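hiii, so i know i said id send this last week but things got crazy w the move. better late than never?? heres the sequnce for the chain we talked about at the cafe, plus the structure i predicted for it. fair warning i was half asleep when i ran it
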Amino acid sequence: MSKHLSFLFIIFFVATACKKGSNTISVNKSDTPYIAVNGTILISKINKAYTPDSSFTIATFNYNSKQLTSMIRPVSYTTSSCHCSIGGFTETTVFNYDIKGNLTGTSIASDLPAFEQIGDVRSEVTYAGNNINEIKLYYANNVLDQDIAFTYQNGNLVSWFDNYYRVNPFSEGINYTFDSNGNNINQTVVAPPNPGSSATYGPFDKNFNFNQAIPLCPYLLISRSVFLPMSLLPFVPGTHNPLSKIYTSPPYTSGTFTYQYNTYGYPSSVNYYWGGQLYESYSFEYIIVP
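okay and structure toks below
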């Protein structure tokens, strides 16, 4: 899956915490009452399973007080001799902040063999008010890879646009549409001069969207692809969790989602069905910050 066609399938995950706690003691069915949180609930780990017996962690987050300090995810490379994937490696993203606690950028490193150290090594972040409005990612030797701009309306991320310098001249973005309840009901890919695809989401459950457990939304949404190439679960921001995804153009196969919830009303797991068949499953582990 190419990088520029994968952004519809990325979920962003940034969270903060100082002490681990369990908020997955019991599981509720959709739309049932939940316990009020005495503190802030945040995602700490994301697991993926192709089958019930094949679960593995695809992202782990570390914190200091209410700041995310690092994210660790598994990485691999493909050999030229057998075209097979060699795994067992990790990539660590370290998050840097100014004295006011604003994210200024990251340092990115992995334990891949030296000949495979070809990805981004750092990023720079700028703000407009309280929102991240631009992210620049660099290869080694300050070679610019991507320049990503964000647009907001009433506090919601309504679009992003990315200029790819390594696939020059190419650019792509996504426009988001929300309903009066704050649910993301439509996403349209912008990829000039080519026509973009469009997908509609809904109906929605009445529980908390798990993206609400992530305060620094844009950075990991675009710049650090937590799920790539391991996920087809789309990023759908907003108030509640979508139950279906319908492509409106082109007419691709649609997908549906089923959830289990923890006692605090957040999804503890989600099954993703594609073409009527169970395609992928995910589980989420949370922490509570007093």
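btw The first strand starts at residue 27 and ends at 28. thought thatd interest u
miss u guys!!
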